[in-house]
Amino acid sequence: MPTTAPSPKLSTVFEQGGTPLSDATASDSALRRFLHGLPGVDAVGLEARAASLGTRSIKTTAKAYAIDLAISMIDLTTLEGADTPGKVRALAAKAVHPDPTDRTTPRTAAVCVYPDMAATAVAALAGSGVKVASVATAFPAGRAALDVKLADVRDAVAAGADEIDMVIDRGAFLSGRYLKVYEEILAVKAQCARPDGADARLKVIFETGELSTYDNIRRASWLGMLAGADFIKTSTGKVSTNATPANTLLMLEAVRDFRAQTGVQIGVKPAGGIRTSKDAIKFLVLVNETAGEDWLDNHWFRFGASSLLNDLLMQRQKLSTGRYSGPDYVTVD
Question: Is 279 among the catalytic positions?
Answer without folding.
Answer: no
